[in-house]
Amino acid sequence: MHPSAHSTKALSTPSDTYRLFVGIQLPQEAQRELALVAAALKERLAFQKWTHPQDVHVTLSFLGDASAEKAQALAHDLRQLAAAALPLTLHADGLGVFGPPAAPSVLWAGVAGDLEALAALQREVAGACARQGFPAEARAYRPHLTLARRYRLAAEPFSRASLAGAPSLPTWRVEDIVLYRSHLGRQPSYEPLGVFPLGPGV
């Protein structure tokens, strides 16, 4: 279990605005393993921005801007739904890209493991967010770990063959969900506002 598993940061005055999303954080060992993978890829792939190891996560629901008051209300609901869910196991599985074939916008690692439980958890989170007035995402849910963004157009065209022979990717136990705040221009960029344990007594 993460040391902060039962914490919820004090949210500021209701006039403050937060850019929010709900996700699954990776334990430190998985962060380290993925950082080694990313470092090896960085030597041969010309992406402009590589994700800070502490920022790598599995998104459950992107929410956008919200008041601190609304974030606090959502945190209450997330704590309750997390307590009714069970921990699960995930592992990173393969590499891929989103965007134009010659200049992808995102380099990602796939997610495998307890995918049915993950999908059920994501639906519960999306429902809690909808009840607090956050609009549902139009896209189908595709869990992944973003490793890098924006392939450099000045470099040679991207080739999927460059993803072949990737090293082994980590497995981890998911024991909580996190309400994150995004900070533009900061590394790491994502601040946990609340960490909510899965299952009673975790």
3D structure, described in words:
With 202 residues, the protein is an alpha+beta fold. The chain has three helices and nine strands. The chain has helices at residues 28-42, 68-83, 115-131; strands spanning 17-25, 47-50, 57-67, 88-98, 106-113, 144-151, 171-174, 176-182, 190-197. The strands form two sheets. Strands 2-6-5-4-7 form a five-stranded antiparallel beta sheet. Strands 3-1-8-9 form a four-stranded antiparallel beta sheet, with helices on one face. A hairpin with a 7-residue loop joins strand 8 and strand 9. Helix 2 runs antiparallel to helix 3 (115-131). The longest helix has 17 residues, at 115-131.
Number of strands: 9
What topology, given as strand order, has the largest sheet?
A: 2-6-5-4-7
Poorly predicted residue ranges: 1-6
What is the average per-residue confidence, as pLDDT, rounded to a whole number? 89
The number of helices is 3
Strand and helix order: EHEEHEEHEEEE
Specify the helix fraction band: 10-25%
Radius of gyration: 17 Å
Quaternary structure: single chain
> What structural category do the secondary elements indicate?
alpha+beta
The N- and C-terminal alpha carbons lie at a distance of 8 Å
Strand content: 25-35%
Biggest beta sheet attributes: 5 strands, antiparallel
Globally, the shape reads globular
Motif (HXTX 2): 144-147
Enzyme class: hydrolase
Pfam family, one: 2_5_RNA_ligase2
Active site: 57 (proton donor), 144 (proton acceptor)
